[in-house]
């Protein structure tokens, strides 16, 4: 942990960015990841019902839970001695290695040293303290490769004597697996409502099946804020005080007015086309697909389209694309962009890495509450190491002291309301000039509503952004961009209905 803290103090933000982005970033980028939808001022915090109930029971498509497949083969002796975990990158591996007390660091060759990407260096094989070998089944996310491989392997699980024990999923496609036949419900794993009581409700809603059963757990909560340049705020608004800046951008009308002020002073309000997308997509009133399998575009998505077109034409943005080199440069001191919408991981890792400077940014809630990203742990139906899976889930997602420690050492905002409230008292971020952003995250997390999350979110979020890039840049008109979106959706999801 001393090494990890040292990294955090200096290069951790840069080093972890690559691995975190692959898990928590935007699906429309090469990192292939994102969140679903949902945020509302009246939704609930941990341990209470959210405004919309469970994610599968809102106005979104209501796909019934698939029947679990009978396990026709038992795990072999070799399988029982191996904990097999499917994932797409190094993030969960690093969390397990550092924060699961049954991980055998000595036998696994973990000294605390990290590679150039910030990942722990370990030996050829990894073990738990009881001698169980950990076998990572890693498939990168690119071109949907992870899901494709996972689908194949889970379909073979019932008849295989070499069992998968755990697998990781993301919000944008969570319901595909949550309502599928391959997940063991959390109550069968052995975690109780009391164990889970401090987890934020939205993180449960996203992975609750159509029968109302919780199917996965997460160590993360990913509420979002608006990160803004302090020097630009002083120049244009006359103050960099977070409360005063928030008062000037607390709704979209005011936000747009400040964008005009920024333009007059030679600055951009946002960097590019995609920067505000999650604040709109996370505040929709319905899901992407209705009960009759029709693709529907919420009015709030079209508000993003209209705002972004206006910003592009008026010079309020710098016409960049998310994750592009230009977008990254805009976050540095040399950039001319006022601010960026970022969730927990984005502020602590990506923005910090791109800014390359402390005291450059402050954060405030912005015009709307939202979240972005997150990773969930599933127990594979048929696992022959259920006790270990339960222990890992508890230690990494329910243990308050462990959650608090994880946030203190990595600044990753963890999925425990009580721990985060305790930590928020007097917390200071070195990157944010001593600002207590954890307290802002606590407030923001309580406002998230994920009731409109659906199984098609990843593809729809990707394709709507891709299709309208051409509209924003003037290559096609609005109707053509819309038609191109529907064409792309039919290719990706042939079972869905789109306007002819």
Commentary on this structure:
- With 500 residues, the chain is α/β, with parallel strands linked by helices.
- The strands form three sheets. A six-stranded mixed sheet has the order 2-3-1-4-11-5, sandwiched between helices. It has a three-stranded antiparallel sheet with strand order 9-6-10.
- Helix 2 crosses helix 16.
- The protein is globular and about 70 Å long.
Question: Characteristics of this structure?
Answer:
500 residues; alpha/beta; D-Maltodextrin-Binding Protein, domain 2; six-stranded mixed sheet; three-stranded antiparallel sheet; 11 strands; disordered N terminus
- Helical content class: 40-55%
CATH level-four homologous superfamily name of the domain at 55-221 and 378-431 = Periplasmic binding protein-like II
> In which order are the strands of the major sheet placed?
2-3-1-4-11-5
Shape: globular
User: How would you state the average pLDDT, rounded?
Assistant: 88
Radius of gyration: 22 Å
Strand content: 5-15%
Total DSSP E strands: 11
Under CATH at level 1, the class of the domain at 55-221 and 378-431 stands as Alpha Beta
CATH architecture of the domain at 55-221 and 378-431: 3-Layer(aba) Sandwich
Alpha plus pi helix count? 22
Structural class: alpha/beta
Compose a concise summary of this entry:
With 500 residues, the protein is of the alpha/beta class.
What is the secondary structure topology, with strand pairs?
Blueprint: H1 2-9, H2 12-24, H3 77-80, E1 82-87, H4 91-99, E2 126-127, E3 133-138, H5 145-155, E4 166-170, H6 174-178, E5 183-184, H7 186-189, H8 193-196, H9 201-205, E6 224-229, H10 230-237, H11 242-248, H12 252-264, E7 270-272, H13 277-281, H14 299-314, E8 317-320, H15 325-329, E9 339-343, H16 344-355, E10 361-364, E11 375-380, H17 386-397, H18 400-410, H19 417-424, H20 437-445, H21 457-472, H22 478-492
Parallel strand pairs: 1-3, 1-4, 7-8
Antiparallel strand pairs: 2-3, 4-11, 5-11, 6-9, 6-10
Helix pairs in contact: 2-16, 18-19, 19-20, 21-22
């Amino acid at each position: 942990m001393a090494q990890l803290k040292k990294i955090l103090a200096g290069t951790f933000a840069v080093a972890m960015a690559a691995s975190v982005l692959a898990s928590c970033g935007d699906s429309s980028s090469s990192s292939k990841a994102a969140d679903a939808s949902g945020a509302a001022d009246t939704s609930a915090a941990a341990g209470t019902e959210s405004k919309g109930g469970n994610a599968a029971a809102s106005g979104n498509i209501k796909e019934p839970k698939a029947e679990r497949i009978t396990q026709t083969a038992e795990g072999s002796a070799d399988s029982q001695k191996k904990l097999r975990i499917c994932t797409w990158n190094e993030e969960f591996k690093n969390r397990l290695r550092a924060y699961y007390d049954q991980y055998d660091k000595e036998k696994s060759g973990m000294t605390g040293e990290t590679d150039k990407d910030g990942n722990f260096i370990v030996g050829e094989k990894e073990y738990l303290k009881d001698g169980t070998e950990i076998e990572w089944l890693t498939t990168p996310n690119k071109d949907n490769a992870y899901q494709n491989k996972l689908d194949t392997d889970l379909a073979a699980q019932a008849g295989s004597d070499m069992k998968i024990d755990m697998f990781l999923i993301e919000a944008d496609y969570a319901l595909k697996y949550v309502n599928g036949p391959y997940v063991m419900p959390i109550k069968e794993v052995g975690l109780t409502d009391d164990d889970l009581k401090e987890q934020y409700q939205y993180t449960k809603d996203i992975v609750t099946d159509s029968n109302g059963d919780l199917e996965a757990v997460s160590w993360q909560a990913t509420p979002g804020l608006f990160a803004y340049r302090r020097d630009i705020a002083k120049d244009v608004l006359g103050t960099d005080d977070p409360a005063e800046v928030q008062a000037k951008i607390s709704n979209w009308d005011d936000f747009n007015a400040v964008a005009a002020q920024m333009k007059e002073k030679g600055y951009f309000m946002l960097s590019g086309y995609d920067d505000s997308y999650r604040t709109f997509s996370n505040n929709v009133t319905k899901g992407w697909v209705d009960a009759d399998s029709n693709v529907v575009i919420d009015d709030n998505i079209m508000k993003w389209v209209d705002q972004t077109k206006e910003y592009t034409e008026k010079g309020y943005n710098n016409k960049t694309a998310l994750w592009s080199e230009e977008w990254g440069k805009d976050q540095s001191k040399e950039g001319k962009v006022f601010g960026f919408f970022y969730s927990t991981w984005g502020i602590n890792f990506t923005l910090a890495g791109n800014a390359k400077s402390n005291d450059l940014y402050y954060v405030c809630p912005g015009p709307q509450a939202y979240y972005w990203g997150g990773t969930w742990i599933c127990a594979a139906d048929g696992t022959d190491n259920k006790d270990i899976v339960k222990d890992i889930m508890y230690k990494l997602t329910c243990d308050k002291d462990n959650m608090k420690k994880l946030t203190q050492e990595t600044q990753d905002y963890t999925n425990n309301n009580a721990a985060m409230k305790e930590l928020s008292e007097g917390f200071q971020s070195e990157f944010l000039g001593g600002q207590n952003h954890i307290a802002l995250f606590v407030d923001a997390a309580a406002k998230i509503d994920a009731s409109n999350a659906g199984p098609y979110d990843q593809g729809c979020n990707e394709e709507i952004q891709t299709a309208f890039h051409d509209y924003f840049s003037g290559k096609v008109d609005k109707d053509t961009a819309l038609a191109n979106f529907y064409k792309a959706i039919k290719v990706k999801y042939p079972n869905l209905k789109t306007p002819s």
